[in-house]
Amino acid sequence: MTLAPDTPPAPQQAARSAQDYRDHYDSFVAQVRALCTAPAVRRTLESGRGRDLRDFPHGHPAHRYLIRHVHSWPAQRAHYTVAALIASQTRRISGDDPTTVHVPRQAPPPDAATPTAPAAAANETGDLPTAVAAAQAARLWWRRPNLGRSLAEAAQRRSSGAAPMASRMELLLRLPSHTMQPRLPGLCRLVMDSGVRIDWAVLLSDLSTWETRRSQIANRWKEAFYLHSDPLGAGPDAPTAPADNPTA
After folding, report:
1. For 21-98+145-227, which CATH class?
2. Which DSSP state fits 134?
3. What pLDDT, in 10s, does the model give residues 48-105?
4. What per-residue string of b and e applies to 213-242 under the rule 16 or more CB within 10 Å gives b?
C-alpha cells in the first residue's frame, strides 16, 4: 500500500535531554526508597546485589517491582545494581543487619546540592532562557557528590587513611561494567559503615554510561577523591612532622 504524498509521518518519540535523564535518576531512587519501606520487597531488591541479570534465567526477582520504572531506559543492570545497594542501605539503617557498625551519619556537605524533584529544580531556574536554565541545572547536578568524593570522605574516617581506598578506587576504574558492578557492594559498604552518604542518583548516572564514558567518569571520581582526601599516607594515626625550632 502506497501512502498519499500528503500523509503525515508517524509520530516519533521526542529525544530525551540530559535533564530528562537526571530527573529519571532522581525519580528512580525515590521510587526504590518507597518500595524498600516494605521489608519483603526490600529483601527481594537486595537479592540482586552484585549479580548479573544472567544469573536469573527465569527473570530477575525484582522485575515485578522495578520493570515499570526501567523498561524504557537504557542500562537496566545499572538500575538493578543501584536498587540493590539502596535496599542494603535501608536494611542497615533500619537496624535489621546485626553486623552493622553504627556510626553517626554525616550531614550532606554544604556545597553539595540536595537531590530535588524535577519541579523543584525547575523553580530554581525561574524564567531563564532554556539554554541558560539547562546549564544551571547541569551545574547543580555536577556539584553533587560522586562516588569518588564519598570514598574520600569515608577514608578520612578510617585509621588506614586514603591509600587503601585510593587503590580500590583505581582498580574499579580500570574494569568494564560487568566486572566492576559486582565489586560495588563491598566498597559501598565501607562508605556506609563510615557514616558517609552516597548520592545514588549520581552513581546511577555514572553506571548507566560507564561503557561509553568511562574515561570522563574516572577523571571526575579521581579528581573528587584527591580534592577531598588527606594526602596519601597522612591518615589519622600518621606521625606529624616536628615543628620548626623558632630559635634555630
Report:
1. mainly alpha
2. H
3. 887 877 777 778 889 899 999 999 999 999 999 999 999 999 988 876 554 444 434 4
4. ebeebbebbeebbeebbbeeeebeeeeeee
- How far apart CA 156 and CA 185 sit, in angstroms, is 20
All three cell numbers of 50, joined, read 552484585
pLDDT score of 236: 47
**3-state SS track over 53-64:** HHHCCCCCCCHH
pTM of the full structure: 0.76
Is residue 184 within 8 A of residue 50, CB to CB? The reply is yes
Q: What pLDDT is attached to residue 30?
A: 97
What is the pLDDT, as a whole number, of residue 245? 45
CA distance 235 to 156: 7
Q: H or E stretch including 164? A: helix 162-173
Residues whose CB is less than 8 angstroms from the CB of residue 28 and which lie 6 or more positions away in sequence, other chains included: 69, 70, 79, 82, 83, 201, 204
Cell numbers 531488591: residue: 45
Residues of the chain with pLDDT under 70: 1-14, 95-128, 231-248
For 34-45, give one letter per residue: b (16+ CB within 10 A) or e: ebbeeeebbebb
Cell output for 242: 616536628
Torsion angle defined by CA atoms of residues 89, 218, 134 and 116, in that order, rounded to the nearest 10 degrees: 10
Spatial neighbors of 68 by CB under 8 A, at least 6 apart, are: none
